[in-house]
Here is the input.
Amino acid sequence: MNEWKKVSEELPPLEMPVWAGWFFTDGRFASGLFAFCGDGCGGASWCLCEDRMSDDNFIDYRGEFISEEYPISHWMYLPKPPEE
Here is the structure.
């Protein structure tokens, strides 16, 4: 269940939080908690679920993203919560 999926091959259910990200041109991978959200008019886009992003080096990208159009290329389901 925790395998990366390509956006070009499969999208998550609408409004479901998933871990998602994309590659920068220099090879770094930025990722964070996102949801693929419907706009109510038949369209959809990726919405950031938190204000913190990280790349391979865990750098905080908060404030760097001016646009809300995230170039998500890969995503994965979040793990199931532990049992008591």
